[in-house]
Predict the 3D structure of the following.
Amino acid sequence: MIERPTITIGRKGKVVLMGAGPGDPELITLKAVRHLNLADVILTDRLVNDTIIQSHAPQAVVIPVGKQCRKNKSTPQLTINELMVFHAHSGRYVVRLKGGDVSVFSNIADELETLVQHEIPYEIVPGITAALGAAASLGVPLTSRGLSKGIRLLTFYNDAAIATGEWENLAATEDTLVFYMSGETSLELAERLISFGKSPDTPIILAEQATTPLEVVTLTTLKDCLTEWKGRTFLSPALLIIGKVAALHNKYSWKQHLSHAPEYFPEVIQSAARPTSSKSQVPVQIHF
Ligand code: SAH
């Protein structure tokens, strides 16, 4: 349990859970910018462009609470929850800033549960999710008539992420499949889909660092990626778009795309410290 500071600073704190968009700092909503202008504290994910915070919230104390798959410096969810509660109970305007949209592959439910339990007022502001940012940036109409009837947002970061009975359905559907957090498992994914009957000629795009100036795009087929991507390292973040519409990238691509690039988003290097209640009523590691 976190001790609540007794200090009052003249207003009640609140938390705004917001999406910052997929990377391009212009892909953020006006509403999100308004909240950034008001923020005292920003708890930010790794995949949030730093320019966004520098431009719209120079006044705020920024606490990176990034997580990164397979990196042990990731900030535990419990610490993030505690930081939100601590700063809101200290009367601060807290922005919890997430890459893309807040409700797509994010722990928003966990954070909402914490806010409800502690009776902290909150708002939710959506953002452009990576699938939609990448589709625009690559020139891929995700539900192009005659090619796809829908979009499925999925992940295959481990075996349990797709239920055993689902594979046949994924192999058979004409829907566009967008896989988050699945760069490193892409070969296994392609093999699995082929083995369940998906055409080996189905187009697949790997979009790395989509919407940023260092966007890397590779278009191939399920069959060919098995050889072309073997031994390849993937830049994080990476997204897969699978289905007939992916081939439209060749026709509608409207900007220069790189085939190799350095990392755009810095790695998570340190886990955020848990808040501590001291006599001065502010966490020792943060100076307001
Ligand atoms: N809430 C985010 C998703 C968080 S999960 C959203 O709505 O976009 C993190 C995953 O999102 C990454 O592993 C990657 O698959 C995807 N992603 C986020 N930003 C991306 C980008 N700029 N380019 C490619 N994939 C991205």
